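Here's what a typical entry looks like (Nuclear transport factor 2 family protein):
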Amino acid sequence: MTLSHEMPTAEALVRRLHDRAEISDVQLRYATGTDSRDWELFRSCFTEEVEVDFSDGFGQPVVRVHADDWVTATAPRMESFRATQHMITNLVITFVDDDRATCVAYVRASHHLPNSTGDSDQTVHGYYTNRFERTAHGWRIAAVKLTALWMTGNFGIFQAALAPPHPRPI
């Protein structure tokens, strides 16, 4: 620990800057992996087990799951939309110690699906509070929490995206 009157070494400063950059990169890979449907990239963001909290706005229970299972559950949901765009900004990274940190970041998550229930778009406005851990493979998300502040558009497209496909007339 550095006391307030002590100056951190150049090496310590560089390491902290590198850690911040790596955490930011992981947070952005999360969005890029989701929107590009690159599930290997998305999986690279997580520790082996991850706590997932999408209870706010979506009513899903908080769960602790193996990251592979989280990716397997997320992929078909996101692939059901014609397109998604997750914009993550205003990252505030706070270090607990050398190997644990929290990143709070704004998110605007847009979901597009032409449908018969109304508007084709739905957008979640809120923020992520993600807990990170340093692993042998670099910084990874150990817990992801989405706080939805408000939503716009047609919330019904979430149900439409997950509905079984209807046979089309020939």
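Helices lie at 10-36, 39-43, 55-58, 67-79, 156-162.

More examples are in the samples folder.
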